[in-house]
Write a structure and sequence with these properties.
CATH superfamily of the largest domain: MFS general substrate transporter like domains
Radius of gyration: 21 Å
CATH topology of the largest domain: Growth Hormone, Chain: A
Number of helices: 18
Number of domains: 2
CATH class of the largest domain: Mainly Alpha
Strand content: under 5%
C-alpha cells in the first residue's frame, strides 16, 4: 500500500492518518505499518505501541528505585526481596485471568483496567508513608499488570500470520525503550525525592490510559470472542489445558521460560560482577544495560520481521538462544570494556531474536479465540522465571562464584536448545492441530 493510498482511505480518521505518517518517520514501526492492508489496523498498531511504550517507561522509572526507597523506611534485605517478589507473585497468579477475560470481553477493556490500576498504584507508591503501603502498592500493581498479555493478544488479532513475529517485535521494542529511558528518568527524578518517580510513572500511565480511551479501537471481533462464563473452568483452565497439549504451544513456551530464567539469573548479578571486575558503579552499569536495550530495540523493532519472513520464526529463535548461551559463556572472561561491549552485543542480538519469535510461535500455535488466555499463561511463566532466576543467581553468586553462576545459566540455555530443536522446522502459521479435550 502506498502512502497516498493510506491517506485517501475514507475509513481513516485524522488521528489515524497522523499515526500512519508517524510510521513513515520512525523505522521501528514503519515496516509493520506498511504490511497491513487497512489504515485502521495500521493506526491501531501504532497506538498500541505508544500505549505499551509509555506505560513501560513508567515501570522502568520505578523498578530500580525500589530497594533504595524501601531501605529509607528501614526495610531489611529480606523485606526488600519480598517487596520485589510481591509484584511478580500477584502478576503470576492474575495474568491468565486477565487473558481469559480478554478472550470473552475484548482486549480494550482489559487494557483500560490495567492502565487505570497502574495509574492508581504508581501514585500510591509515590505517596506511601510507610513500608506497609509500599507492599500494598506493589502487590496491587501486580494484580492489575495484565496490559502486556492483552497487548500481545491485541497484536495477534490485527496482524497476519506471516507478520506475527514483526508485530511481537514491536512490543519487544516498546519493552526495550521503556527499560532504556525509564531508569534514566527515574534516577534523575529520585535526586529530588524518592516519591517523584512514582508520581511521574502515574502520570505516564494516565497519559497512556487517555490515549487508549480515545484512540484505541477494539481488536477482537465479536464472532471471535469466547462464549460462556469467563471466570470458570471452561473460561480459564480448559483453554489453557487444551492449548498446552499442543507441541506448537508448549515447546516454544518452555524454551521461552528457560531463556528468561537464564537472563534473570544474569541480570540480578551483573551489577555485582561489574563492581568487582571493572569497578563500575550503579550509573555505569545502568549505561551498559541501556546499551543492551538499544541493541535489542534495533533488532526487535526493525530487523526481526524481515528475518522471520526469510528464515522462519523457529530457526531465528534457536539462533537467538545460541547467541545468548555463547554470551553467558564469554561474560566471565570479558575483563575489559571492549570485550564487554562485544559480549553484550552478542547477548543483546540473541534477546532481540528469540523473544519476539518465540512469542510469535506461541501465538501462531494457539487457537485464535484463546489468544488472551495463552498469552496470559506465557506471561505468567515468564514472571515465574523472573522469580526463580534472581533467587538462584543471588545464591549461586555468593556460594559458587561468578563463573559458575553464568555457566549454569549457559547450561540452562543449552537445555533450551535441545528442547527447542524441533522448532527449526516448526512454523505453525498455516496448520493448527486439533487436540482432544
Amino acid at each position: 500500500m502506498s502512502r497516498s493510498d493510506i491517506l485517501l482511505d475514507k475509513r481513516a480518521s485524522i488521528s489515524q492518518i497522523g499515526t500512519c505518517i508517524f510510521a513513515f518517520e520512525f523505522p521501528l514501526i514503519k515496516g509493520v505499518f506498511l504490511k497491513n492492508s487497512k489504515a485502521i489496523q495500521t493506526a491501531s498498531l501504532g497506538i498500541i505501541f505508544l500505549v505499551v511504550c509509555i506505560d513501560l517507561i513508567g515501570f522502568g522509572m520505578v523498578l530500580p528505585l525500589l530497594p533504595i526507597y524501601a531501605k529509607s523506611f528501614g526495610a531489611s534485605p529480606l523485606a526488600i526481596g519480598l517487596l520485589a517478589v510481591s509484584f511478580s507473585i500477584t502478576q503470576f497468579i492474575f495474568n491468565p485471568v486477565w487473558g481469559a477475560l480478554s478472550d470473552h470481553y475484548g482486549r480494550r477493556p482489559i487494557l483500560l483496567l490495567s492502565l487505570m490500576g497502574a495509574t492508581i498504584f504508581y501514585a500510591l507508591f509515590g505517596w506511601a508513608p510507610s513500608l506497609m503501603w509500599l507492599f500494598v502498592a506493589r502487590t496491587c500493581a501486580g494484580i492489575f499488570a495484565g496490559n502486556i498479555s492483552a497487548a500481545m493478544a491485541y497484536v495477534a488479532d490485527i496482524t497476519s500470520k506471516e507478520n506475527r513475529a514483526k508485530g511481537m517485535g514491536l512490543i519487544g521494542a516498546a519493552f526495550a525503550i521503556g527499560f532504556v529511558v525509564g531508569p534514566a528518568v527515574g534516577g534523575f527524578l529520585s535526586k529530588y525525592s524518592y516519591s517523584m518517580p512514582g508520581y511521574a510513572a502515574a502520570c505516564l500511565s494516565f497519559t497512556a490510559l487517555i490515549l487508549a480511551i480515545f484512540k484505541l479501537p477494539e481488536s477482537l471481533k465479536p464472532e471471535n470472542r469466547k462464549r460462556g462464563v469467563a471466570l470458570s473452568y471452561d473460561g480459564i483452565i480448559r483453554p489453557i489445558r487444551v492449548n498446552m497439549k499442543r507441541p506448537a504451544v508448549a515447546r516454544p513456551m518452555l524454551v521461552y521460560f528457560l531463556g528468561i530464567l537464564a537472563f534473570a539469573c544474569m541480570q540480578i548479578t551483573f551489577p555485582l560482577y561489574m563492581l568487582e571486575t571493572l569497578g563500575y558503579d550503579v550509573m555505569e552499569t545502568g549505561y551498559l544495560f541501556a546499551f543492551v536495550g538499544i541493541v535489542v530495540m534495533v533488532f526487535q523493532g526493525s530487523l526481526v520481521g524481515r528475518l522471520s519472513n526469510m528464515f522462519g520464526e523457529g530457526p531465528l529463535a534457536l539462533i537467538g538462544i545460541a547467541l545468548n548461551m555463547f554470551g553467558l559463556l564469554l561474560l566471565p572472561v570479558a575483563n575489559t570494556l571492549t570485550l564487554l561491549l562485544l559480549v553484550l552485543t552478542i547477548f543483546g542480538i540473541g534477546v532481540g531474536l528469540n523473544n519476539p519469535t518465540l512469542s510469535s510461535l506461541i501465538s501462531l500455535g494457539s487457537d485464535e479465540s484463546e489468544q488472551g488466555a495463552v498469552m496470559g499463561v506465557s506471561r505468567s511463566l515468564n514472571t515465574f522465571a523472573r522469580i526463580l532466576g534472581p533467587l538462584w543467581g543471588g545464591w549461586s553468586y555468593g556460594a559458587l562464584g561468578m563463573v559458575w553462576t553464568y555457566w549454569f545459566a549457559a547450561i540452562v540455555l543449552f537445555f533450551a536448545l535441545i528442547v527447542g530443536l524441533p522448532l527449526y522446522k516448526m512454523r505453525p502459521a498455516l496448520h493448527l492441530e486439533v487436540v482432544p479435550e
